[in-house]
Amino acid sequence: REHSAMASKSGPSIHGIKDIIAVASGKGGVGKSTTAVNLAVALAKACQLNVGLLDADIYGPSIPLMMNLHRKPEVSEDLKMVPLENHGVKCMSIGFLVDKDAPIVWRGPMVMSALEKLTRGVNWGNLDILVVDMPPGTGDVQLSISQRLQLSGALIVSTPQDIALIDARRGANMFLKVDVPILGLIENMSFFKCPKCGEKSDIFGHGGAQRTADKMNLDFLGEIPLEIQVRSCSDEGSPIVMVSPDSLTAKAYVDVAGKV
Ligand code: ADP
């Protein structure tokens, strides 16, 4: 697919990368990183693209665990870091560089300079798409990333609850304010299907993200169930898209990948 069609006015700002898209959420804990990881793997495996994954969640990096990458990156001759690769995706995270239990207590400018190193200080090679796992919320850092990386688009993850959707709307409006196109909303933890009896329960409600997308005139990209395997695969460092590509959930992620 021709991804450059999606690029905003001036196009992405890192040499060799065609498109940079953000996976964002207004709140933490709604499944933003899980979505970013499965989307990146789906884009690489199912869509056959050259994909990178940047963990921009400096205070809570999840990519080392979710992609099972625990080494320190090497530095190449041009003094850039070589991204670590797993499941066909090139990854970079602050978690590769600092001790896993050390608290990261940096103020904003330090976070921005770290992010600068994690983006332009990396030998990404030629990428069709760089997926950015954003920090949760709509603060200074999120705004700076959106502007400095000249994002081609942003995808918003929310659970169906009002409390999460309010923040998702805030997130969407932040991107719109800086002219980053919203690729659409995803509803995570959309429903639970009992593995024993098959009954469906809407633990956090259902359909809220679709209604929010309709109200804001945004695309709704799909729903991902609350499922033990999504969590256990993440914890083991092998995303469900990789482990159970034939599952309905993996197909839902691939479907989202096809829409971005
Ligand atoms: P965020 O990046 O928004 O903070 P994470 O992706 O880290 O959220 O997810 C938070 C926790 O919820 C993780 O333990 C993850 O494995 C789990 N999780 C996320 N999505 C699902 C899902 N659809 N089903 C089950 N567990 C999920």
What report would you give on this structure?
Keywords: 4Fe-4S, ATP-binding, Iron, Iron-sulfur, Metal-binding, Mitochondrion, Nucleotide-binding, Transit peptide. One of its GO terms (cellular component) is mitochondrial matrix. The protein has helices spanning 32-45, 63-66, 108-119, 140-148, 162-177, 208-216, 228-236, 240-243, 248-259; strands spanning 17-24, 51-55, 84-86, 89-93, 127-133, 153-158, 182-188, 192-193, 200-201, 220-224. It has one domain: 3-Layer(aba) Sandwich (Rossmann fold), CATH 3.40.50.300. It has 9 helices and 10 strands. By secondary structure, the protein is of the alpha/beta class. The model is unreliable at 1-5 (pLDDT under 50). The chain is 34% helix and 19% strand. The longest helix is centred in the middle third of the chain and has 16 residues, at 162-177. Residues 25, 28-34, 62, 136, 188-189, 224, 226-227, 230-231, 234 line the site of adenosine-5'-diphosphate.
Give structural attributes.
single chain; 260 residues; Rossmann fold; eight-stranded mixed beta sheet; two-stranded antiparallel sheet; 10 strands; 19% strand; disordered N terminus; binds adenosine-5'-diphosphate
In short:
With 260 residues, this protein is of the alpha/beta class. It is 34% helix and 19% strand.
Write down the domain tally. Answer: 1
Radius of gyration: 17 Å
The appropriate CATH architecture is 3-Layer(aba) Sandwich
Q: Overall mean pLDDT score?
A: 92
State the distance separating the first and last CA atoms.
10 Å
Classified by CATH, the class is Alpha Beta
Number of helices: 9
In CATH, the topology is named: Rossmann fold
Return the string of H and E elements. EHEHEEHEHEHEEEHEHHH
Q: CATH H-level name... which superfamily?
A: P-loop containing nucleotide triphosphate hydrolases
- Oligomerization: single chain
As a percent range, the share of helical residues equals 25-40%
The biggest beta sheet reads: 8 strands, mixed
Category by helix and strand content: alpha/beta
Family: Belongs to the Mrp/NBP35 ATP-binding proteins family.
Cofactor: [4Fe-4S] cluster
Main location: mitochondrion
GO biological process, one term: iron-sulfur cluster assembly
